[in-house]
Amino acid sequence: MASKEERLQKFMAECGVASRRKSEALIESGAVKVNGRRAEIGDKINPDTDKVYVHGKRIVLKKKGGKRYIMLNKPRGYVTTMNDERGRKCVADLVKDIPERVYPVGRLDKDSEGMLLMTNDGDFANVVMHPKKEINKVYHVTVKPDMPEAAAKKIMSGVEIDGRKTAPCEVRVISRSEDRANVEMVLHEGRNREIRKMCALFDIEVTRLKRIAIGSVKLGKLKRGMWRDLTFDEVKKLSANPNPPKYQV
Questions:
Q1: Could you tell me the pTM of the whole model?
Q2: Measured between alpha carbons, how far is 72 from 42 in angstroms, rounded to an integer?
Q3: What are the distances in angstroms from CA 228 to CA 8, 69, 156?
Q4: CB under 8 Å to 230, separation ≥6 — which residues?
Q5: Active site residue ranges
Q6: What DSSP string describes 160-186?
Q7: Which is it for strands 69-74 and 57-59: parallel, antiparallel or unpaired?
Q8: 174-178 own/partner pairs: CB under 8 Å, 24+ apart
Q9: What is the pLDDT of residues 169-192, one digit of tens each?
Q10: Angstrom distance (rounded) from CA 94 to CA 86
Q11: Judging by DSSP bridges, how do beta strands 181-187 and 137-144 pair with one another?
């Protein structure tokens, strides 16, 4: 008879705790216990017999067959987490009417807005987030006082932030006014506050940042704070990583 054991982070993702990568971080931090013992990376569990606790709360695998794929238009002021110890508003508040326990695919920082995918399908989340897949993330960014051509070229070729060079990206100025510029930026990786940090190197202030697309799936006219299910075709496209053509530079 085949063993029912599976990796702990996979079980956690299936329970809707977090993606596999974030589940691994929870394990490393000591927040996860299995049968009363602190869990370690590489642990395997039997979902039928082992008891898994995250932050002292037992997690249980819900009934199979309820995969959900959500697009949320995240407003500014919400943190991308399912609970917050500091009592801040979090995206869980916006999807509490969904019966399945979905979690964010990647992140948008508190001051950013726009398209945030959420799911309870760990495999789908891994495909969308994995750096090697290089799925395009498209942002509309308002900056002050401007996005000079020299700064844009350096950002496009990659700059060093947090001790590591960023992947090449695309920068296109949409419009300019006296003290600001509207810019479209396309990233192929998802580092923490990457756009803000890249701009800060050139004394450029980001006053608004909105993600409008992931891969070929667009936010469209979805209202701020609202969510909708992804269509079958959208899920299929993201799973297959269909990047749109790059801009001509």
A1: 0.72
A2: 33
A3: 30, 9, 33
A4: 69, 70, 71, 117, 217, 238
A5: 109
A6: EETTEEPPP-EEEEEEE-SS-EEEEEE
A7: unpaired
A8: 174/140, 176/146
A9: 999 999 999 899 999 999 988 788
A10: 18
A11: antiparallel
